[in-house]
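Apologies for my clumsy wording, but could you write out the amino acids of a protein and the tokens describing how it folds?
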Amino acid sequence: MDKINTVLGPISVSDLGFTLMHEHIMVSASGLFDSYPDLLGEDRERKAIDALKRAKAEGIDTLVDATTFDLGRNARLLETVSRESGVNIINVTGWWLDVPRFLSGVSADQMAREFIRDAEEGFRGTKIKAGILKCAADFEGVTKDLEVMTRAVARAQVHTGLPIMVHSYPTGNVARRQIEIFREEGVDLTRVKIDHSNDTTDIEYLQWILDQGCFLGLDRYPGRLVSPHMRTVTMKNLIDAGYADRLCPSHDCICLAVLKENPDGTMPNEHDFARHNLDQYLYIKRQVIPDLKEMGVDDATIQTLFVDNPRRFFQGE
């Protein structure tokens, strides 16, 4: 694929530049931005635009927004933020973990048709097209409902050729079942990226995923379950083992989320997630890359991680 859909239209994959492969502009509930916007605080759009302007000023060219419908995707917001900040935004279609009861019983083919429309025609009421697919499973494993969504995403991938990003739970080795489903559905595993993989330091498991042909999303920085330094040590170990050409570091940063009132009735300035990463989309630039260089990783490998690998992943090399 020589072109990839961004929220402002298709661009050449060669123009992606320095790319963060798993981020969020906003995480909420579906429709919350329009129905209850004040829960997200004041100056919502401006806060997101300013965050991405700061990222752009320090060399971030593109980010993949992993916000599905059930995570509150707002394509118009992303369009505005991208245009005003100058950062390319690639948005997903597919499904995260929240499958409501009214969708119980829908078929994988039904959902695949919806995801294909998002990619080929645009999110409903817009001409903004998805550039990547997403499915998910977590500590409960691939439940019945999530298997439907996983198979739907797999079928949409086979139809459209778009790559898949996968929310996974490495502590439970959940990617083993997810990859098994992709195989059953005929997905080319080189078009799959297993995310949140730096929530573990289990190199044997991570190497197994890579040996299936998948890319690896090392996209939880600074994270909580593993220290930031040990996440980078794990990345360095994988680089040394010869896997640098399929690693995609990122943050899973969230700029906008619901602000929760303090016990005294005052409102915080930042949501809960933000307090764990004051550098937002620049943590990797400011903290991780210097740490990698201190460990002996050269500039060519940094280029591979943040420029070459995203291009190759989207291009399908």
Residues 20 and 200 are 20 Å apart (CA to CA). The mean pLDDT is 96.
